[in-house]
Amino acid sequence: MLKKTLKTSLALIIGGIFLWLAFRNVRLEEVWEQAKTISFGWILPFGITLLASNILRAERWRLLIEHDKKDLDSVTLVAGVLNGYLLNMVGPRFGEVARPVYVAKRENLNSSKLIGTIVLERIIDLLTMIILMVVVTVYLISDLGLLRQIFGGQTMDLLTQGVPLITTLWSIFTVLVIGLVGYLVAKTIQTIAARVDKVRWWVDKVKEGLSQFKDGILAARKVKRWWMFIIYTILIWTCYTLMSYIPFFMFEATSGLGILEALTITVISAIGIAIPSPGGLGTYHYFVKQSLSVLFGVGLAAGLTYATITHATTALMVILFTPIALAIDKWRQTKKGTSPI
Q1: What is the pLDDT of residues 10-32, one digit of tens each?
Q2: Which of 47, 104, 161, 224 could form a disulfide with 111 if both were Cys (CB 3.0 to 4.6 A apart)?
Q3: Looking at the 3D structure of the chain, how many domains does it have?
């Protein structure tokens, strides 16, 4: 409980800092004036695209776990994905556990193994994002000065000039100390477990969970339809790009931007969302505002308004869609005679 509290508090602090950075040097009156010019008709296609991205993600996830159970319920998978995104707004990565646990209980699967498939999925998404980042860098950001303005000078110095030797040595030393302490703790627990039955039971449970987790990560070896997995991945990132592109037409300041600019915003905002803040709060706003301003000459107030509206709309739609999906799933499970969670 203490660990979760500290993790959530740290995420809120990070989100608060980036939110302050995003709104710094921008007058709220200007943001409000920009907000009053929004064309709300584009929210409907935005919502449809958001829902489609979650359905595609659920179907792609199916490919990683269908070797354990063929007749997975599509509604359960979608409800699990939406539930995960909803809980990510509460705390960083809460949804990464909530999604597999929910589906595991509904489909009578091993939750530790499903958590492993989520880790595998995130690794694949990270590799995809890196590939897209290379494309974006070649297309637009050949000037490191632009990257410095978006991500900050210290970050770019770290990436382009390397890490100081003393920092590297201290990092290696810290990792070695953590590894040594972890090894000693594990050996101590094993020694106690050999003498105390209750401790041995817990150790066996942890070993079983870790084994299932490893099997989940290695689920890639059992995927039979890799061509479908690749297609789903392309379609998912296409939806994400459209979710950056469609809102361009909500604002006069961004209406002239195209699909390649949307891809750029998508990749850079994904980096922001990867930073552990609740649902990308603050980090998304800052990186999107900076990207629109530095790369495409959009005013700070207009860029911040775009980021605020798209983030808020996404959050509200997840809050709207999730209870509906969970209710439908509960009704279907009850109808089939499965006891609800």
Answers
A1: 767 777 777 777 777 777 787 78
A2: 104
A3: 1
